[in-house]
Amino acid sequence: MRRALTREIADLLRHAQAVDAIAAGKAASAMLTAFAAETDVTVRTMLGVGPRGAAIETSLPGGAVWCDAGHPLPDAGSREGARRAL
Fold it and tell me: Considering the entire predicted model, what is its pTM?
């Protein structure tokens, strides 16, 4: 996670009162877990959107919401994830 953040983004996160963390794709659950472990900023919303079963491979952080999404074609779960993200 630290390698993925530029110094500028890391500084913004350190000074934020709260953030919304949204991850999408096969690695979304792993990304949310890494984000929760590597930052001490208050997370207001944590949302993962990815293929069915992807969240089972990595347990989600407490308070995270997961939307099973269609792959390779979007489906109702994909639309729900997009709606929640917006």
Answer: 0.83
